[in-house]
Design goal:
It is built from twelve helices and 15 strands. It is α+β, with helices and mostly antiparallel strands and 362 residues long. It has a five-stranded mixed β-sheet with strand order 3-9-8-6-7, sandwiched between helices. The two termini are 34 Å apart. Bound molecules: coenzyme A (COA). The site of coenzyme A has 21 residues, from helix 3, helix 7, helix 9 and strand 14. Coenzyme A binds next to helix 3, helix 7, helix 9 and strand 14.
Length: 362
């Protein structure tokens, strides 16, 4: 008994996964979301505003996507990093920790301030954090779920104690605001969300599991090809200066994306529930990536969930890609929609294709 106690103490102290008398003892921590935060730019763009730029209507947008308005960043004021930092400051405050306690940072975005370096180091600078590691994630609409899953692994294995996970996007400047780009430009918006993920000794609460997938065969079905090093090199793009070159703009095969999204969302939610011996009846709150209200409603119907079991805010913000889940999560917390011990399911699908889920006992 004494030896056993000593071994457990050593494991806790050093956080090892080790073998004692041929028995593999796997000592892992749990990670818990300690604080949430969000920030959206002030500039509200209604569907009506878009009708002045392109051939569209409020009815079409609402009927197909559920979106009523979205936020657009203001040039010279908002950057992906400074919005992410504002969200992060709120998350740190809500986590009731000092920023010096953060020992790693993960930043998910498809719209970085610079081609390189990524927003991770820029956020480290703006937040004046210690010289901690900063990692950038490029997984589009699944970016936050991927980032949270990576953070969870680092915490579970004992490498870090408090990880700041940010998802932020400024997508509006890259959208084709003409009738040519209307199927994409009415959907996307700008914003930022963040969480502080922290080590916890309570293995009954926190992230239970995460599940990540990709299918690169569909990479071009939802993509922005330029500027990249495959299609045209930057000097060619500059020389051509061709307004008809749509490779600068995001392209989306909307119906194909929709069909894949509803299948993959359902699969990855089921995968998460099964892994933890849970059923759809156990879900207290599903927070799907805010891709399209019709997709969320399809999932809700498929899993026979009530309105109170599914969180949607796409009506206000549109699809904010990597920021959508952390904004929704922060609003859900703010509105008292999540109670201690609730089962919270995060699920995302997007460009890549990539998709994933995170199952949390709050
Ligand atoms: N306003 C008015 N008409 C529009 C429009 C707009 N903003 N965008 C497209 N249309 C038109 C099309 O040009 C087409 O016209 P046509 O029949 O004369 O050719 C018609 O509406 C139907 O277009 P279609 O693309 O088939 O519409 P849809 O019913 O598939 O809806 C989406 C389009 C984009 C809303 C829908 O496909 C969708 O939501 N897909 C998933 C998108 C998504 O979730 N993306 C993010 C994943 S992370």
């Amino acid at each position: 008994m004494k030896i056993y106690k000593e071994i457990v103490f050593l494991l806790q102290k050093n956080n090892y996964i080790c073998t004692y008398q041929n028995i593999k003892i796997n000592f892992m921590y749990t990670s818990k979301i300690k604080g949430t935060g969000y920030y959206v730019p002030e500039n509200i763009i209604t569907n009506e505003d878009l009708t002045k730029l392109m051939d569209t209507t409020d009815e079409w947008i609402k009927e197909r996507t559920g979106i009523e308005q979205r936020r657009h960043a203001t040039k010279g004021k908002d950057t992906t990093t400074n919005m992410g930092v504002r969200a992060a400051q709120m998350a740190i405050e809500n986590a009731k920790i000092d920023k010096s306690e953060i020992d790693f940072l993960i930043f998910a975005t498809l719209s970085p301030d610079y081609y390189f370096p990524g927003c991770g180091v820029l956020a480290q600078k703006e937040l004046n954090l210690n010289t901690i590691g900063a990692l950038d994630i490029r997984n589009q609409c699944s970016g936050f779920v991927y980032a949270l899953s990576v953070a969870d692994q680092f915490i579970k294995t004992g490498m870090y104690k408090n990880i700041l996970v940010i998802g932020a996007e400024i997508q509006s400047p890259a959208l084709d605001m003409t009738t040519r780009g209307r199927n994409v430009s009415v959907i996307f918006g700008d914003g930022a969300g963040a969480v502080v993920l922290s080590r916890s000794d309570n293995n009954k609460q926190g992230i239970l599991s995460s599940h990540l997938h990709s299918e690169g065969v569909h990479a071009e079905e939802l993509a922005m090809i330029s500027p990249g090093v495959t299609n045209k090199w930057v000097p060619e793009l500059i020389k051509e200066n061709n307004p008809d070159d749509t490779s600068y703009y995001p392209y989306m095969n909307g119906q194909f994306v929709f069909k894949n999204a509803v299948v993959r969302f359902s699969e990855v939610i089921m995968e998460g529930l099964k892994t933890n011996n849970l059923t759809k009846e156990d879900i207290n709150l599903l927070i799907p990536h805010q891709a399209n209200l019709r997709i969320s409603q399809f999932i809700q119907q498929k899993f026979q969930l009530t309105d109170s079991q599914v969180f949607n805010n796409i009506q206000k913000y549109g699809n904010t890609t990597a920021a959508s889940i952390p904004i929704a999560l922060a609003e859900a917390v703010e509105q008292g929609r999540i109670k201690e011990n609730d089962l919270v399911v995060l699920a995302a699908f997007g460009s890549g294709f990539t998709w994933g889920s995170v199952i949390i006992r709050w």
